[in-house]
Every structure is written in structure tokens, then in C-alpha cells.
Amino acid sequence: MRLLFFLFILLVCLIQTSSGHKRNAQYLQCKKMGAICKSHKTHGCSILPVVCKSRYKHCCRV
What we know:
By secondary structure, the protein is an alpha+beta fold. It is 50% helix and 19% strand.
């Protein structure tokens, strides 16, 4: 029973680690495109279709 519980915890940790890596790769795309993540209240920038960490921000090229 303990072995089954340990394997379950290990599986959950592996899933969390792999999904976190995918999200971090998406966030780095904004910097690779020469832009930065800014809040929605900024004006005068070109919004790029890339994900930022906060849902209140977007990838903006000034």
C-alpha cells in the first residue's frame, strides 16, 4: 500500500514538472521576439500573440 502511494506521488510530481517546463518555454518566446510583457493599460505598442505569465499582461513590442 505504501509503495502504491509513493508511486502515485511520484507520478503527480512528474506531471507538474513536465507541464511547468512547457509553460516556461512559452513565456520565453516574448523575450526571444524582442518584446516585453506589459499590463493591458499600456498604449502605443504592437501586441504579439505570445503568452505572458499573468493573464493581465500581454507581449508588447514598443
